[in-house]
Amino acid sequence: MRSELTKAPRLVVALDFPSPQAALSLANQLDPARCRVKVGKELFCRGGPAIVEHLAGRGFAVFVDLKFHDIPNTVAGACRALADSGAWMLNVHALGGSAMVAAAREALEGVSRRPLLTAVTVLTSHDQDTLAEVGIQGSPDEAVSRLAGVAARGGADGVVCSAREAAMLRDERGGDFVLVTPGIRPAGGDSGDQKRTMTPADAIEAGADYLVVGRPITKAPDPLAALVALQAEIPTA
Ligand code: C5P
After folding, report:
1. Best CA proximity match to 51, nearest among 77, 9, 85
2. Buried residues in 20-52 as b, exposed as e (16+ CB within 10 A)
3. φ, ψ for residue 91 (rounded to 5)?
4. Percent of the chain, pLDDT > 90?
5. Which of 7, 41, 67, 195 is catalytic?
6. 67 carries an active-site annotation
7. Using CA positions, which residue lies closest to atom 3 of ligand 1?
8. What is the DSSP string of 168-219?
9. What is the CATH code for 2-236?
10. For the whole model, what pTM was predicted?
11. pLDDT of 4 higher than 50
12. Which of 90-104, 144-158, 215-229 bottoms out in mean pLDDT, i.e. has the lowest?
């Protein structure tokens, strides 16, 4: 049985800013009770573990989205190191294979307040053509389904996927498998480079647990107003 309590708040604000100062100036206006935050590659490369520690210290559940993909031993060491920063969630690429995912999972055993481990299936910027370009045959759905199996075999808590695949994965993987969905756009919003987008309400309806939203908030003329509007699109029941 999935715990509704562990899912709130469901909105994860991607702090995709070029400097820690810019990220913190938005984070300082956010309430950890109302949203989680995501530190991605750009911010981590500028701010390092200190930015994660700072945000966690302010009470935020921090998803550190570095999408590790390397040999199992290297990924295990990176996950162990990242866990020390107080991350709530970290991730790897399922394309690294189940042995790599298992090494990541094992590295997190024994960590006090173990971060959730998720695996990226197919980037939400990919479609059938871009998958074919890198040699992945079949539809995005087939690739996502196969890679979610890799993640599950490796012991990941769940996957990062497009909300468009959430219903399929919820069906295939059951209620406890965590589904994190980027590519969320407000109703009527611009999709940018994301190819498989969905509105917050539709993503929740499809079975997503956590909704990652970046540019619709960070590039908005009034980021706080954009955040509040997106929160209003998330069903609370
Ligand atoms: O600005 P936007 O809402 O498109 O940002 C989505 C965020 O989610 C970005 O930080 C991106 O790196 C991340 N992400 C993604 N697709 C994945 C995994 C993470 O877009 N499969």
Report:
1. 85
2. beebbebbeebebeebbbbbbeebbeebebebb
3. -145, 160
4. 83
5. 67
6. yes
7. 214
8. HHHHHH-TTSEEEE--B--TT---TT-SS-B-HHHHHHHT-SEEEE-HHHHT
9. 3.20.20.70
10. 0.93
11. no
12. 215-229
Atom of ligand 1 nearest to the CA of 14: 10
Rounded to the nearest whole angstrom, what is the distance from the C-alpha of residue 68 to the centroid of ligand 1?
15
* Most confident listed range (90-104, 109-123, 189-203): 90-104
* Secondary structure letter of residue 163 according to DSSP: G
Cis check for the bond before 235: say yes or no (omega within 30 of 0).
no
Distance from residue 212's CA to the centre of ligand 1 (Å): 7
Q: Give yes or no for residue 5 having a pLDDT over 50.
A: no
Cβ(115)–Cβ(52) below 8 Å: no
**Bridge partners, 211 (sequence order):** 11, 181
Q: Whose CA is nearest to atom 5 of ligand 1?
A: 214
Residue ranges per structural domain of the chain: 2-236
From 62, 212, 219, give the residue whose CB has the most ligand 1 atoms within 8 Å, as the site to mutate. Answer: 212
Q: What distance in angstroms lies between residue 182's CA and the mean position of ligand 1's atoms?
A: 5
